[in-house]
UniProtKB/TrEMBL annotation:
This is tRNA synthetases class I catalytic domain-containing protein. GO terms for molecular function: ATP binding; cysteine-tRNA ligase activity. It holds the Pfam family tRNA-synt_1e. It comes from the Eukaryota. InterPro entries: Cys-tRNA/MSH_ligase (IPR024909), Rossmann-like_a/b/a_fold (IPR014729), tRNA-synt_1_cat_dom (IPR032678). Gene3D superfamilies: HUPs. The keyword Ion transport does not apply. Keywords: ATP-binding, Ligase, Nucleotide-binding.
Length: 236
């Protein structure tokens, strides 16, 4: 069970509490039914919102994200939420992210490079929108996926984005597209072991069409497993 995690650029609020208490209950219930459940929620600690916030406070972006993540964990403990099985951070999984993107680029042509950035080509994925029940033509241009004349298709989404080379963080990290907070943080072995199981992905309603759809396309282009198409989606 994968629940879309937080972007750690500020303190938690009541909306976060609602989300994680709700799925803590689901986690407990599935375990009560004796299902073997791996409960994961990611931590997005490399993101443009974090950089903007760090600049405002005059703080190192990674230090800021660690501080707010610690605050988040305290809040969850006050709510008596069970700790997830794993909380992968983007900053801890850059090698895996890079390897996954390279394989998508090199192995099947589902992605392309533009000025040092990498975009996923939706035209290479015929089942676009299958999970959400929406068609590509139903999209409003610029809705969550930035309009960019460099893209082959306006709906193509970023796998890898470059930040200002003069920013201190640029010496250590690049950043992924801000809408793309997915279990891409998993290692290859974890992805393949998940391919023969039911994978429950839960994200906010506002991003369920674009973000989750992007995740499914990326997974399928990466490990080519038809069983992965059993992925189910919930929203909060």
């Amino acid at each position: 069970m994968y629940v879309c995690g937080i972007i750690v650029y500020d303190l938690s609020h009541i909306g976060h509490a609602r989300v994680y208490v709700s799925f803590d209950v689901l986690f407990r219930y599935l375990k009560h039914l004796e299902y073997e459940v791996c409960y994961v929620h990611n931590v997005t600690d490399v993101n443009d919102k974090i950089i903007v916030r760090a600049n405002e406070l005059g703080e190192d972006p990674l230090s800021l994200s660690r501080r707010y993540f610690d605050e988040f964990r305290c809040d969850m403990s006050y709510l008596h939420c069970i700790s997830p099985s794993a909380e992968p951070r983007v900053s801890d999984h850059m090698p895996q992210i890079i390897d996954m993107i390279k394989q998508i680029l090199d192995n099947n042509g589902c992605a392309y490079r533009v000025d040092g950035e990498v975009y996923f080509s939706i035209d290479k994925f015929p089942e676009y929108g299958r999970l959400s029940g929406r068609k590509l033509e139903d999209n409003r241009v610029g809705e969550r996926v930035t309009v960019d004349s460099r893209k082959q298709n306006p709906a193509d989404f970023a796998l890898w984005k470059v930040i200002d080379l003069y920013h201190p963080l640029a010496m250590r990290l690049f950043m992924m597209g801000t809408h793309y907070r997915s279990p891409i943080n998993y290692s290859n072995a974890q992805l393949e072991s998940a391919s023969n199981r039911v994978f429950l992905h839960i994200s906010g309603t506002i991003i369920s069409f674009n973000s989750v759809r992007c995740i499914v396309k990326t997974y399928n282009s990466y490990i080519f497993s038809p069983k992965l198409r059993q992925l189910e989606v919930g929203t909060y």
